[in-house]
Amino acid sequence: MTALHEPATRRHTELSWPLARALAAGAAAPLPATAVPLRRARGLALARPLPGADGELLPAGTVLTPAALGLAASTGHDTLTVHGRPLVAVLITGNRPALRRTPPPGRPRDATGPVLRGLIDWAGGRALPATHLPDGVRPLADALVRAARDTDAIAVYGASSPGPADRLGPALDSLGAQVVVDGVACRPGRPQLLARLRCGTPVVGLPGDPYAAPAAGVTLLAPLLAALAGRTPPAPRYVRLDTAVGAHRADTRLVPVTSRGARVVAVGHDRPGLPWAAALGDALAVVPPGGAELVELIELPR
């Protein structure tokens, strides 16, 4: 059994949203390259450029869509050198949520599990079945050690809020982990965490609120998994919102929006505990502190 060190008193130092996301994108190198047949390459990222008779057809980091696979086949390629999908352990802390129907009072329904699994797949990873843990530092620390043996990354749902509910921080401290991000100045999704265990496995802590999970997922988890999968990040897209959205003076706001023709509008229905707004939206508008005329759009998993 892994020995626990005495955890130090934690001091949450929130980072700006752009800095936290950049740190997540740079926190891991791509998985080793391997050659796979075309029929197994869909959704994987090229580890080296796709050559053709007239030079490079597709750059390294390109995600292989059906059209890309058709291009590869038409130019005589039977196998492609790609990065694999990172295997992700999902740890859920606290009271075991109900998986069916409406649970009795005091027991939550698992609303974040489907969000996490979809986000992990969309970002290039493969999610293992979730492991539900009793509350406490020791069960979480032991689970982190076990998960790190066979996975490329670990996502922890809940137990990351500052104060008495913080179980993830002390568990990581007890294992001698390096904490890279300990809180992000964004709304929703402030209590996020990115750390690296001593064995090198990255750990992402996500807030337990289903309303905040999609925003937190695209901030730290998605960039990390895209880096492990060797995917080239998409070019930023900036738009002008057609609905008034109040900016926060110090925090970045992540606002679900949808496109209606040439217009980009906020969908509303921002309600803690319910991912209604993210379900209606197709992207998050990144509204910086103080606001801006043009805002970045981050695609939501579809």
Automatic annotation (TrEMBL):
Q: Which SMART domains match?
A: MoCF_biosynth
Q: What are the recorded Gene Ontology BP terms?
A: Mo-molybdopterin cofactor biosynthetic process
Which residue range or ranges hold the MoaB/Mog domain? 89-227
Q: Which reaction does it catalyse?
A: adenylyl-molybdopterin + molybdate = Mo-molybdopterin + AMP + H(+)
Q: Which PROSITE patterns match?
A: MOCF_BIOSYNTHESIS_2 (PS01079)
Specify the signal sequence span. Answer: none
Pfam families registered for this protein in UniProt:
MoCF_biosynth (PF00994)
Cofactor section = Mg(2+)
**Which keywords has UniProt assigned to this entry?**
Magnesium, Metal-binding, Molybdenum, Molybdenum cofactor biosynthesis, Transferase
Top-rank lineage group of the source organism: Bacteria
User: Which GO CC annotations does the UniProt entry carry?
Assistant: cytosol
The keyword tRNA-binding appears for this protein: no
Q: Which family does it belong to?
A: Belongs to the MoeA family.
State its role.
Answer: Catalyzes the insertion of molybdate into adenylated molybdopterin with the concomitant release of AMP.
- What is the protein named? Molybdopterin molybdenumtransferase
Organism classification: Bacteria, Bacillati, Actinomycetota, Actinomycetes, Kitasatosporales
State the encoding gene. Answer: moeA_1
